[in-house]
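Hey everyone, long-time lurker, first post.

I ran two proteins through the pipeline my lab uses and got sequence/structure pairs for each. Pasting them in order. The first:
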Amino acid sequence: MDLPEGLANHAVYVIVLGSFIAAFSNAAFANGGAMIVLAVTTTVLPVSAVVPIHSTLLIGSTVSRAVVFRDHIDWPITISFLVGSVIAVVIAAPIYVRLTDETIALAIAIVMLVAIWLPGISWRPKLRHPWALVGFLHSFISTLFAYGAVLHAVILHSDLKRRQIVATMAASLTGMAVFKIVGYAANGFDYTPFLVAIGLSIVAAFAGTLIGKLVIDRISEKLFRAVFRLLVTLTALRLLYAGLFNS
């Protein structure tokens, strides 16, 4: 298995399983997948690789959701989001590749803890067309620290229905992921050692999406979210320790 030095072969299987669960979560609940992938990858990948790889692992989930729910995509929102997104990635990608591992670990940990424990934010920008601004802010944060959260905070409080939210987020985040991958590669990140894990994860994500679609209107979220919050918190605390004491 062509993996970076120091990574055991089981890392690929852990990443693939995480991608499956993330895609299932995104299809069933319209949320949670990005944080699941982040939690999984931080346990088996070098810290400096987590953010660039995060985009490639999620793209299988977002593409599959965009295809499965394609009739529900709100294209005006998606296009506006992507206009802001591409500008943000151009600015943020060169900054990311200059950050130290300790800075990345601390920043990811803080983002995870804030996303999990901060009360829900019902941000509704008082703009006629807010989605380009949402795209810029979400993509800038996401390019630096993997998880943007801004799109979620806004779109979940829009007038879109559940399937429209799933579809529109999927299309928007697919475009952002492409921009990010190109941005990291253009600034020197080498994806070659991770291609096997990426390819298998994309296949797993399609399976997770199809199963998630089957239960989207049936499954209860309460137990899932409790376990999800616990695991993400433990992962964030481990990253905090690594960032503070492994420097």
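...and the second, right after it:
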Amino acid sequence: MENSGQKIKELGLILSEEYPGVTLEKFNRIAKDFAKRLKGGETILFFGDLGSGKTTFIRSMMEQFNVDPNEVRSPTFNIVNTYQVDGQVFYHIDVYRITADELFELGFYDYQKQNSILLIEWAEKIVDEIDQPDYLVCLAINELNMNTRDLQIYTGSDS
């Protein structure tokens, strides 16, 4: 994640939680606990290399909201997946294949509503277009055990 430290600093986010070398079971538990914080109107950025667990984390989050985990897939090709739960709308966005300039055409700015929650994978690519995210989840494959993940959760000043 080249330059991610500088990008995090520019966003003014604060490291609030750190979990090194977590198993899949604990990883899923952390994601579900994280989901309990969300009330609507939040923007959550996900930084992480390919295979680090961005979609898996989101799948576990959505499970907390009773969304069938089989319905939660990476939106790599269709760019946006939408999940509606009890009056809240979750927009699961993958910006890996688009540029910041294409965000406007995508209607990205229309997704930011009071009852919506934005879950943005590969957010490091468009971080300059995000005013003030509420959370940033950084994921990495653990260097000592490739079956575990390192996880950091950053919060914004209002979160």
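Reply from user beta_strand_b:
Welcome! Quick read of the second one: The first strand starts at residue 14 and ends at 22. The chain has one domain: 4-131.
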